[in-house]
Amino acid sequence: RFLAQYARLSLASLPHIALAMSSTLRTSQSGALRRSWIGIWALAAALAWACSTRWSAPTFTPQVMPQHPRRTSTAGPQRRSPGAPTAPWARSATVVESVANPVRTVAESISDFYKAYPQPPVLPMYRSFLIDFLTQIHLVSVDSRFKYDAVFALGVKEYYSGLMGTYDKIVGSGQSEKIWKALIASLGMDSDKVTADAEAVTAFAKSTSPAQILKEVEDGSTSEVGQAFGSIGAGLYSMPFSVGLFKVMELSGVEVSKANVEEWAKALKVSTARVTGDLETYKLNKKKLQNAEEMIREVEIREKKKLAERLEAKAKALAEKAAKKAAPAEAAADAEKPAA
Fold this sequence. Notes:
The chain has 15 helices and no strands. By secondary structure, the chain is an all-alpha fold. Keywords: Coiled coil.
């Protein structure tokens, strides 16, 4: 900027410089000196012209940064111009939202359960086990490989009975049956049918020997229970099937041991590792339930003992109060008696 201003001043003063140099040249006697002054004047003029063109005052133009689409944290839809390009993630979201999902979610099943059984609330000690059980059955039932049968029904019923067997003892009313109906309905099943199928398998296992059951499985019996056993290996195998199998073995008089379970698993064409793993889980859960029932019995005994102590203390206090009220009356009666 300084050089540009200097150049403009130099150009403005060029006429004066030229006049002074011309007078100097006229008075100069030496030709060499005249030529040197001409060169100096030409150099000064060239320098002034260069400064005025190259080092002119710069003009700054503010830069406008390009605007890029970015995600925002707002939940509502964002307005945009009709011709604006659509972001790739917006297109993906639109495609996903436009596809209907026919598979129910776990959250929907849990919500339906609480709608069917709003009150009274499930006790906290049982709530976590109950929701976990509901989640397991839901994930099995929505699988495309799942096929419902009577053995599955027995396993579900037996698992629930073991889980909620002591519930009515605590709450003092028949709430477990209401919870059962709400649970099965939230899974899209008929509670009456599940109960009836479980009872049918129970009656079959009690009246049939283990050898006959295995024979029907191998020969492919046409009965409903036989078909249920025969189709276990073809569909999705899950924990309720294992529980139903263990209950059938128990009802038919077979010890539910690892060796016997492996033998039955081979006959049913089911993975022995899967069945033995479910057996360990089944025994562990039964042990937990037994411990819970024992704890409940101990609590009941303590509560009954405390109640008896409170009743005894109350009776004693009433007796003392009655004795205090009777003492003045007895004293007055003694005073009214004539002296002997």
